[in-house]
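To whoever is on call:

I kicked off a structure prediction for a single chain this morning and the downstream step that reads the tokens threw a length-mismatch warning. I double-checked the sequence; it's 158 residues and nothing unusual in it as far as I can see. Pasting both halves so you can look.
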Amino acid sequence: MDETIVVGVDGSPVSRTALRWAVEEAKLRGCAVEAVLAWHVDYPVVIGPMSATIAAGMDRDKLREEHRRVLDEVVAEAGGDVRAVLAEGDARDVLTKASEHAALLVVGSRGAGPVREVLLGSVSSYCVHHATCPVVVLRAPKPEHVEPKPVITPGPLL
């Protein structure tokens, strides 16, 4: 096991929060941080909502570069010394494989709900059950509900 904290990122707000948390934790532990963005083209899913001709013409290099841009942006925003890793493959497999050399795996959870989780699977749940190191799952904060205050005026407005 290496003294590295591996963080799964995808550009979402909760993954950005997870990376910032990992950077702070790495400072306390004195270890490195590795931000991993996993991507792949799932052709059976892509072909469904669009024609096979369009799917066949998808430019893998362009997709890879778009994911690289997102990864670089997330890493730059987090600050600290973070190694950016762009990996082609299913996020569940990529992150559990990365956990083999990690002291800690950090992932965000969007809390997509039970129906979406059954259909698409939960990366965070998969990692908790299959990673070879401890896993920290950070949830997106729920928006705070603030009751609107009534407008009180001193009298009639003219």
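Update from on-call: the warning came from a stale cache, not from the record. Cleared it. Sanity check on the structure: The CA atoms of residues 73 and 128 lie 27 Å apart.
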